[in-house]
Amino acid sequence: MTETELNALLAGITPPDEAARAAAHAHWAGLAKPLGGLGRLETMLEDAAALTGSAEFDLSRRAVVVLCADNGVVAQGVSQTGQEVTRAVAENLAMRRTSVCQMARAAHCDVVPVDMGMAGEPVPGVRNCRIAAGTMDFTAGPAMSRAEAVQAIGEGIALVRELAEDGYRLIATGEMGIGNTTTSSAVAAVLLGQPVELMTGRGAGLSDEGLARKVDAICRGILKNEPDPEEPLDVLSKLGGFDIAGLCGIFLGGALAGVPVLADGFISGVAALCAVRLCPAAAKAVFASHCSAEPAARMVLEALGKAPVITAGLHLGEGTGAVASIPLWDMALAVYGGCYSFAEGGIEPYKPQC
After folding, report:
1. CA angle 20, 22, 26 (to 5 degrees)
2. 63: closest CA among 111, 105, 108?
3. How far apart are CA 199 and CA 294, in angstroms?
4. Do residues 252 and 275 touch, judged by C-beta distance below 8 A?
5. Which of 228, 144, 243, 146 is nearest to 191 (CA)?
6. Using CA atoms, how far apart are residues 333 and 125, in angstroms rounded to an integer?
């Protein structure tokens, strides 16, 4: 995909369907329960109606898409483990042995592991969408070319298109890539105009010394590359990862296909921020699952204007937070589709009192 082709696609993303949102709201209001009693579970389905253009739902087919990629900045000692762990987890994703696989089984959710750019040979059982064998070390220059960033976004859009054609109507986002809290913190710091120290956490458990190296590497990367905060593609290509770029495409693809996309934690939240900066109308496809324990996660959600349905201190990755929210969708749908109405129960409908 070229940048011109990407821009043409983004021009086709329409605003939310407010008539469908109103219809879903009216349906909730007719059910025999306190008005708005299910809180965000109600507005979540109303937002989904505005995205899909219909107040009727069938979300029985769902998938978590786990994008795997390696990051050259790991050479700066910003992570607790080396790049070999990215590959090891990808292999276990293919064998359906990881944490998200167990949670997805409970949530009746398919797992789709994807190689966006890991070091080494392709992993059997992992879909090959690799852009390159990992990004470059952004302390020495751009993590990737602008064309590679566009290509990765295009792969994400194509994945959603394919899943939608196969009947999937709910997509959870996941990722696996050693060093990707470093790339996410770097991108978020620039896009939100915040100090690097405020936007950077310990990832998978860095010591004080490791955290200092991580902050220093991000500061050097920003100084070296001078990303333009008004140009999301510039920031993404200079400081991001192939997983973030691919996830950005997943959110854009959801907006194009009318499929809700569940943001997992900090990393996918940053990808969603990139998508919305590229195309504000794409925000309609972004659904926040939880607020990660990473320091900047809440700031990213606030910038997106999204409220999570789970606050549980999760910071495992792989899409576990997004998948954990799926049973809440099922519960909301169970009430939405099965609860009796005021009329059926012979009850006077509640009316707003304020």
Report:
1. 115
2. 111
3. 8
4. yes
5. 228
6. 33
What three-state secondary structure class fits 171? strand
pLDDT of residue 354: 65
For the whole model, what pTM was predicted? 0.96
Catalytic residues: 318
- 110-117 sheet: strands from edge to edge: 127-128, 110-117, 62-69, 170-176, 261-263, 286-288
pLDDT digits (tens, 9 = 90+) for 22-64: 999 999 999 999 999 999 999 999 999 999 999 999 999 999 9
d(CA 64, CA 174): 7
What angle, 0 to 180 degrees and rounded to 10, lies between the N-to-C axes of helices 297-304 and 266-278?
30
Enter the tokens of residue 159.
């994945």
Give tens-digit pLDDT for 162-171.
Answer: 999 999 999 9
Question: Which tokens hold the place of 92?
Answer: 């276990």
Say how far residue 190 (Cα) sits from the centre of its chain: 19
- Return the SS3 of 22: helix
